[in-house]
Write a structure and sequence with these properties.
single chain, alpha+beta, three-stranded antiparallel β-sheet, 13 helices
């Protein structure tokens, strides 16, 4: 795909071997061609390595060599346990289990002997082999010989149940893939390996060949064990995978490598919704450029086994705290280098990276990096100085999600506006992670969306609305708009000045009136009501008002999706495309009194 893109020069099998710096800028990257499909280099260094002179570098590797050679600082190990990271450091858990163990420990439990101490350990690596179960003809796919260093004592094999076609059930030691294939995935005494993982990351690419071979030998040794001592010769390498490399992957599965320090750093509190609050999501980020929803999962970080529970140290999978999270742009911009972005080795603690280490996240961080690099080149600025809203606008126009909603796809006509507004905090407190884009919008939705879209600072001076108590979610937004309108002398709500009341009814009240305005926050917002309300708000904020004639022509309720587009349009957000009926069409004229409609009445939700 990349090779077919216009204006792109694609160089395959190129292995970086060094960089040249001028101040904090990479001006040259040296590379050599790999000698095989694994990416190994020739034993001897070339006299004249090949060179590229980049303006911006995107290091999308698992190892992060180029960024490290450029001087970007990084972490490689585990932080200690803190208030923001209750699962950091040295830890034993029963989070892999779904039953009470023989020692009486419940599932999802942090076990004794968990010190929380920091160390240099990282997760186990593997080479995930693509395999197929064959009921007949499997003899042709038996490994011919034992891999180098094979030791059956390193392995065990207790396959889970298989379906009639031979596929494993999900979550066992084999992961179902495509077309009847599976991936090896046994955590302990299987294809995972700790020996050499840290050394592999820190080694120069030329020095990785023997370490890489040990990884492959260990994984193939596991398959050899399955076929022989394990009693399942029917399981063999998939014949249609990696056909240029003996049906084994080109690269080992590096679960965790360098994590570069940057102006922003993700912690467990950014991926675990229970650490920094009680809502269904971690704290929302206005600077999001990616989303993820993988649970925190660490494979073992040492071969230490708890003598009581037999749990491996460092292995954890707390499924109960899984929730969608956001990734800020600052995590992609390493410190101390002006023209480098990273997509995989991003700034995060070990625990946070346990959730971030999946391809679904890297797809979006890669997209964001590519767009940021392009914007930096066009504007002539450093990658750290690219406006985040420009990156976000470009991503939304391509259908990228920056806030997760279970009921919102990129094909929805109001997707860009909803996503933009969500970045500013317009996110329902819903444990199903829904936005409800096709549900009727309420006046409570409107006042909240307006404050957030226009960036109005919260200001509460009094309690002015009957039926709207301070505990209401809409209270602070309605009162903020009242303060804005009052300062500007704009009648945003009926009765704001010289209130008109029903004198006899007022006389019969059991106590003196203290609130003069009315706002039914649960009432539906009509299209014909919302647009003039927003026009008066733009006047109160001393901004150019715009008309949205088509949106105001209908006297039916707005949906929440339509409300998002209408508010974004009124706020004049040029980077966000909205459907034509909700787009601005020039300054509004001839509207001076919001309070009255064609029949001289205020909107029903605002009538006293």
């Amino acid at each position: 795909m990349i090779a077919d893109a216009k204006g792109v020069r694609f160089i395959n099998n190129a292995v970086p071997v060094g960089v040249t710096m001028e101040s904090n800028t990479i001006v040259e990257v040296q590379w050599e061609p790999a000698v095989d499909a694994f990416g190994n280099l020739a034993t001897e260094e070339l006299d004249r390595p090949r060179r590229v002179r980049p303006k911006v570098v995107i290091d999308a590797t698992h190892e992060g060599d180029v960024a490290a050679w450029a001087g970007a600082p990084f972490d490689l190990g585990r932080e200690c346990r803190t208030d923001a990271e209750p699962h950091a450091g040295h830890i034993f858990t029963s989070t892999l289990d779904r039953h009470v163990d023989g020692n009486g420990y419940l599932p999802s439990t942090i076990l004794p002997r968990s010190t929380g101490a920091a160390d240099h350990a990282i997760m186990a690596f593997t080479c995930r082999l693509s395999v197929r179960y064959r009921r007949s003809g499997f003899e042709r796919f038996l490994l011919k010989s034992k891999p180098e260093g094979y030791d059956p004592a390193k392995y065990s094999w207790s396959p889970g149940p298989v379906s009639p076609d031979g596929n494993s059930t999900f979550g066992s030691v084999l992961i179902p893939s495509l077309n009847g294939k599976m991936l090896t995935n046994q955590r302990h005494r299987g294809d995972d390996i700790l020996t050499g993982n840290r050394e592999f990351i820190l080694a120069h690419p030329r020095e990785r060949t023997p370490i890489r071979k040990r990884f492959y030998d260990h994984a193939l040794g596991f398959l050899y064990f399955i076929q022989n001592e394990g009693g399942m010769p029917q399981l063999g390498l998939a014949e249609d995978e990696y056909i240029d490399n003996g049906n084994v992957p080109h690269v080992p599965y590096v679960r965790e490598g360098r994590r570069f320090r940057a102006r922003q750093r993700m912690t467990e509190a950014d991926v675990n919704p229970t650490v920094a609050g009680v809502g269904p999501r971690p704290p929302r980020r206005m600077d999001s450029i990616a989303i993820g929803d993988f649970a925190i999962e660490s494979r073992r970080c040492s071969d230490e086994i708890d003598p009581e529970t037999k749990a491996y140290e460092g292995a954890m999978f707390p499924r109960a705290v899984r929730s969608p999270y956001q990734v800020p742009y600052g995590c992609l911009v390493p410190d101390d280098v002006d023209n480098v972005l990273v997509t995989t080795t991003i700034s995060a603690t070990h625990v946070a990276f346990c959730a971030l280490r999946v391809e679904a996240v890297w797809t979006e961080t890669g997209t964001a990096s590519g767009l940021a690099a392009s914007l930096a080149l066009r504007s002539g600025c450093n990658v750290a100085d690219v406006p985040i809203d420009a990156i976000q606008g470009a991503m939304l126009s391509r259908g990228c999600k920056l806030t997760y909603f279970a009921d919102l796809e990129a094909s929805h006509p109001h997707f860009p506006a909803i996503q933009w507004l969500a970045l500013r905090g317009f996110v329902p407190d819903d444990r199903g992670y829904r936005f409800f884009p096709n549900r009727s919008a309420t006046w409570g939705d409107l006042v909240e969306a307006a404050v957030l879209a226009f960036g109005v600072p919260i200001s509460v001076t009094g309690i002015h609305f009957e039926g709207l108590e301070p505990a209401s979610a809409a209270f602070r937004y309605a009162e903020t708009l009242y303060d804005v309108a009052s300062r500007a002398g704009v009648g945003l709500f009926p009765n704001m000045r010289y209130p008109v009341v029903d004198a006899p009814a007022d006389y019969l009240r059991p106590e003196a009136r203290s609130r003069w305005l009315r706002l039914e926050v649960d009432a539906e917002v009509m299209r014909a009501e919302a647009a003039p309300f927003l026009e008066h708000l733009t006047k109160a904020l001393n901004r150019p008002a715009h008309s949205t004639s088509e949106a105001t022509a209908s006297d039916r309720p707005l949906t929440r999706g339509e409300l998002a587009s209408l508010v974004v349009s009124a706020a004049d957000v040029s980077s966000i495309a909205v459907p034509s009926g909700f787009a601005v069409s020039g300054p509004a004229e001839g509207r001076t009194a919001f309070e009255a409609d064609a029949a001289g009445r205020a909107p029903a939700a605002l009538r006293g």
